[in-house]
Design a protein that fits this description.
Strand order of the largest sheet: 5-4-3-2-1-9-8-7-6
Shape: globular
Structural class: alpha/beta
Number of helices: 18
CATH topology of the largest domain: TIM Barrel
Length: about 675
């Protein structure tokens, strides 16, 4: 638990008690001469830093040769940090193999689907299923755990780094052997595998396990269930590696919590993080803003989803950026105020730690133009002053530490299997974007001032009065039954095009779409109607659809048509429907409406559940409200979504951060975040 990490911080950099939000960065002292280290500790204390991640890319420094070890420099760094009151989230240093290992054992190097070897020169050049790599990596982990198990600076273990960022899919012979083992465990018999993969098609039937390969470069589209299972296997292979490191650490240091940094952001989808979350003591995440019209909505979405993966419990923001990154086509610096706003949005959604990549901006290497807490310009800079101001803010928000995110009435279902399966090849359209569809629903709710939680299918879905399940493409029979019970017992389900089309094996539910939920929704679709790029259709409620349409036939007399198509191939047919069932309802949206269209439609969809904004009418859409709840306090985070000053009336409570209330009126400057504390009741 992250509470264990916080309790191990002996004090803040200013000597205050440790129970406060953690604040810090990746720290890479091996990049700098010894005389910089003491300056670093001094500046960390000045900025309010109380935790740093150390050793992430230090394998070559710690173990310069197979039988040679150098811990002296790391011993000194650990001691210096402890003397400065700074805890260490110590990385196992296994993220990037040293040159001597890949030279002696090139068989650890990953292989692409095209058969190309990924050579050393960057990072993560290792196969998740390589027994040779694992042997050497676990030896390093054991050496580090034995050496630092009693060091007072150690507050947590950091397994590897961004597992799967560059090596999630490996098609090597090691991977092929491990894939077969995984498939045997999943299916038991070749007959079951042949059925699941539909190998009667294209003469793919297997008669021996050794015939099965990863979906390498093929003459045409590889078997879709083979592709899906390889995605599942690849996530599980890295999870198994994570467990291997974790088990060594727990054996030697059972009281030190273990984490690894996820990447819940953008298009990172290869790792099934809801599945991985059960393997670590607390969830950690890295997030970087992608400039665009929904950039801060996407930040809020990703932080919200991280909270959902963590089960609503506090989590650790392991990395984000103080300003520009180095890996986008154009790396735009953040505006004044963005550093604090981005950080506090993560705290609003459950982060109990705010950390950056990295502490001191590198002078050499691939990330030398990536921003840091101490920039190239040094401590006499606007950026470092903003870093120090954020440290003071997080100190003032100490009462928030340990509180959990308060559940919202609306949940948005985010499902990794549906994400993987819905975007595979040989589908009705290649324009479908699973994550974007979910983000559009989230942005529309923000625009209406309505709180929503991102939840996975592993969560208790009954906690929410409304469940929005966009493109829930893969619906096994058990999930279909669960969603049916949910609506019969008073829940209100909203789903969309290309949902409930296939089962867990990617086999189509026969009899018409959306097969698994067809009776619940009271409609039937005989044929999909995807739209060409740039093509749109008008609905009779004045909204516009794109990407997809469905040729809907209403099959239940109580199914209500909320909107129909006015133009396009489905003109005159239903576009949006709702059917009451039990004491709940099930609604269907058959086209992509985008943020604007969903904002117009949502009040009608939410009406049966009585869901409305908790914000005053004049600021809905201008302000994002998020709530965390502790044992005896509620913490209201109000974030200005605009570049103008916004005044929020009708508020009461203690202002922990922000301008004082004036007769219940809160003034939020452009992009500001305020935090109020109220009694829990």
């Amino acid at each position: 638990m992250i509470s264990t990490l916080l309790s191990r911080l002996r004090s803040g950099a200013d000597g205050d008690p440790a129970h406060r939000l953690a604040y810090g960065a990746d720290y890479n002292p091996e990049q700098w001469p010894r005389d910089v280290w003491e300056q670093d500790v001094r500046l960390m204390r000045e900025a309010g830093v109380n935790v740093v991640s150390v050793g992430i890319f230090s394998w070559a420094r710690i173990q310069p040769a197979e039988d040679q070890w150098d811990f002296a420099w790391l011993d000194e760094v650990m001691d210096l940090l402890h003397e400065g009151g700074i805890g260490v989230d110590l990385a196992t240093a296994t993220a990037s193999p040293p040159p001597w290992l890949s030279t002696a054992h090139p068989e650890i190097l990953p292989v692409t689907a095209n058969g190309e070897t990924l050579w050393p020169g960057a990072r993560q050049h290792w196969r998740p299923t390589s027994p040779v790599f694992r042997e050497h990596a676990l030896r390093l982990v054991r050496e580090m755990a034995d050496r630092y198990k009693d060091h007072p600076a150690l507050v947590a273990w950091h397994v590897s780094n961004e597992l799967g960022c560059h090596n999630i899919y490996d098609y090597s012979d090691d991977a092929a052997r491990a894939f077969r083992v995984w498939l045997r465990a999943r299916y038991g018999t070749l007959a079951a595998l042949n059925h699941a993969w539909g190998t009667a098609f294209w003469s793919q039937r297997y008669s021996d396990w050794e015939q099965i390969l990863p979906p390498r470069l093929a003459a045409s589209h590889p078997n879709p269930t083979q592709q899906l299972d390889f995605k599942r296997f690849s996530s599980d292979a890295l999870k198994d590696y994570l467990r291997a490191e974790r088990d060594v650490l727990r054996e030697i240091t059972p009281d030190v919590p273990v984490t690894t940094n996820f990447m819940v952001m953008g298009g990172t989808k290869g790792m099934n993080y809801p599945d991985w979350a059960e393997e670590i003591d607390f969830v950690s995440n890295d997030h970087y803003v992608h400039p665009g019209p929904q950039d801060r909505d996407e930040l809020s979405f990703s932080a919200n989803l991280t909270s959902g993966i963590a089960g609503g419990r506090p989590w650790f923001l392991m990395e984000h950026s103080t300003s520009a990154v180095n890996w986008q086509p154009v790396n735009v610096a953040k505006r004044p105020g963005d550093l604090a706003r981005d950080s506090l949005l993560h705290v609003a959604h459950g982060a109990d730690a705010v950390c950056f990549f990295q502490w001191r901006q590198s002078s050499a290497g691939a990330e030398k133009y990536h921003s840091a807490m101490v920039p190239h310009a040094g401590e006499d800079s606007e950026l470092f002053r903003a870093v120090t101001a954020l440290g003071a803010t997080l100190k003032a928000l100490a009462p928030v530490a340990g509180s959990e995110r308060e559940p919202a009435r609306v949940g948005i279902v985010y499902d990794w299997d549906s994400w993987w399966a819905s975007e595979q090849d040989s589908h009705p359209t290649s324009l479908l974007d699973y994550r974007q569809e979910a983000l559009d629903w989230y942005s529309a709710l923000l625009g209406l001032g309505i709180r929503a939680d991102l939840v996975t299918t592993r969560a208790d879905l009954t906690r929410h009065q409304v469940l929005i399940a966009p493109v829930l493409h893969m619906v096994p029979a058990d999930l279909a039954k669960e969603l049916t019970r949910y609506t019969e017992q008073g829940g209100h389900l909203i789903t969309t095009y290309f949902s409930a089309v296939v089962d867990e094996n990617d086999h189509v539910w026969l009899g018409g779409y959306p097969g698994a939920l067809r009776d619940l929704l009271g409609l039937r679709v005989e044929e999909f109607g995807p739209l060409l790029p740039g093509e749109t259709v008008a609905l009779d409620d004045t909204t516009t659809g794109s990407v997809w349409t469905d040729r809907i036939t209403v099959t239940a007399p109580d199914t209500e048509v909320l909107a129909g198509y006015r133009t396009g191939p489905q003109a005159g047919r239903p576009a949006v429907t709702r059917r009451p069932t039990g004491s709940g309802s099930a609604a269907y949206v058959s086209t992509r409406l985008g943020v604007e269209g969903l904002t117009a439609l949502l009040p009608r969809l939410l009406g049966p559940a009585g869901v409305e904004s908790e914000l005053p009418a004049g600021v809905r859409g201008l302000v994002e409200l998020t709530v965390r709840r502790g044992a005896d306090s509620r913490f209201l985070f109000l974030a200005n979504r605009t570049d103008a000053t916004v005044q929020v009336p009708g508020l009461a409570g203690e202002v922990l951060h922000g301008t004082p209330l004036a007769h219940g009126l809160l003034t939020l400057g452009p992009r500001d975040v305020a935090v109020l504390r109220r009694p829990a009741d």
